[in-house]
Amino acid sequence: MKQTRAITLMHMGSRTLLMGIVPSAIAACLLLSPQTASAQQIASQGETSAQQIQQLTVAVAKAQEQLKASEQQIQELQRQLSALKERLATDTEVHAPQTSPASATKTELAQQVDALHEQQAVQQAQLAIHEQTKVESESKYSIKVTGLILMNGFVNTKATDVIQTPSIAVDGQGSTGASLRQTVLGLDGRGPHLLGAASRADVRVDFFGGTSQGGYSSAGGVLRLRTAHAALKWKNTEAFVELDRPILSPNVPTSLTTVSTPPLSWSGNLWNWSPQIGVTQSIGISSSTRIKMQAALIDVADPAIPGVTRTANASLAERSRWPGSEARVAVAGTKDDPGPEFGFGGYFSPHRTASGLHFNAWAGTIDYKLPLPARLELSGSFYRGQALGGLGAGGFKDYVYSSDEGYEYIRPLDDVGGWAQIKQRMGERLEFNAAFGIDNVFASELRPYGTASTSNFNYQNLARNRTFFTNVIYSPSAYLLFSLEYRRIQTSPVIGASESGEVFGLAAGYKF
């Protein structure tokens, strides 16, 4: 384009020079004619012939010099024009598309176009959801109703603790069934600005509460509070209160067949929903990287045994009269460029038994989420600590105990575990996941105390629990979700043989 423009300018320059030369020549001729007539008149008036000749010679010389300079300029412009034409022809040949990789280029472009069309369809469906009329609350701020109506079918080849969402395998026959109790309902709200911060809140409930969660029921279920959040959000700071998983365990494995209890629970995933109050601070260190710092106070519950009703008594952490604390520091991407995230955290909580014995629960954690080439993603978490039953580890227990002549002896249990998941996205609608998790209580600490609590033998006797699962999740639209999953659980007690079982799951959900 620039070369064509240069050629055009050359033509315009040539035309301009010609327009300047022609009038000069005409002027020279006119100059000769008047000067000739003037010479005759001067001769008639008595002027000498030598003066007339001298004036005419000077005029002719000037005209000849102008003509010669104009000819040289025209020749230079013609030379430059020819050079530009030759250069333009050469560049056209060099940049001409090659025929050999044409098929590969067309294939790549077609794939990119298909991916864009698919992404556009998903985004349009999501926009249609957000543009719907919101429910108005008494506070005059809009409330959005969200939820997931979820049906899950299951085939368990071995007896498990909770047949709809198994965590451990036990000795006994398997089961087959289906349930809608993992359906989730939620409310999302945005409130007024306060002190320059935007306010928000949300709450989630499901139907997996009650004392009969270990038994199968095709219908029914008791409403249960899952998570809740309220926060004030500034540009780089957020103050929050919440009921959710610990801040030092931010990542969640992906599964649609186990939602009421998160995937890999009691197999390396610190998930237990606990009341927390804290603050998050982000510090940008570059255009694509930030440091994320979090700190919170946490009220840790006692380990939850499936099928056992929790009493209203104070938990071991609450009996200490000191709140638990937790903190996490991570290097992460920005909102516009998420990128990889790597963090480490710590947890500490004093505990006290009903008989007045003290012990401390603590943990150190590492978490990561790493985008990989070819739409792959690696994520996971690792922990090492003590008395972690309240966070969802430790084999459903914080400690073991024994009594002798009215005296109680306890031993807080050391624990190590974690999980890892690889995700493969095949576009906006299809993904594959494979994950493995393990929770390992030190058997050497369990063995001397035996299994004093016979009412919860399977849990008090549990030393190691491992779970592997793989699934495929297909979303034909922004509203519909389908999944097939295979899971294998291997449970190892201190006393007795290990048990293993397989779980085949099917899930179908409608999201709104």
Helix content: 25-40%
**Structure annotation, total helices:** 6
Mean pLDDT: 82
* Low-confidence segments: 1-46, 211-218
| Oligomeric state | single chain
From the spread of the alpha carbons, the general shape counts as elongated
Strand content: 35-45%
Q: In terms of structural class, how would the helical and strand content be classed?
A: alpha+beta
Q: In whole angstroms, how far apart are the ends?
A: 53 Å
Largest sheet: 16 strands, antiparallel, barrel
Order of helices and strands: HHHEEEEEEEEEEEHEEEEEEEEHHEEE
**Rg, Å, rounded:** 41 Å
Strand order of the largest sheet: 2-6-7-8-9-10-11-12-13-14-15-18-19-20-21-22
List how many beta strands DSSP finds: 22
Explained architecture:
The protein is an alpha+beta fold. It has helices at about 1-45, 50-95, 100-130, 315-320, 445, 455-460; strands at about 135, 140-155, 160, 170, 175-180, 185-195, 195-210, 220-235, 235-245, 275-285, 290-300, 325-330, 340-350, 360-370, 375-385, 400-405, 405-410, 415-425, 430-440, 460-475, 480-495, 500-510. A hairpin with a 3-residue loop joins strand 14 (about 360-370) and strand 15 (about 375-385). The model is unreliable at about 1-45 and about 210-220 (pLDDT under 50).
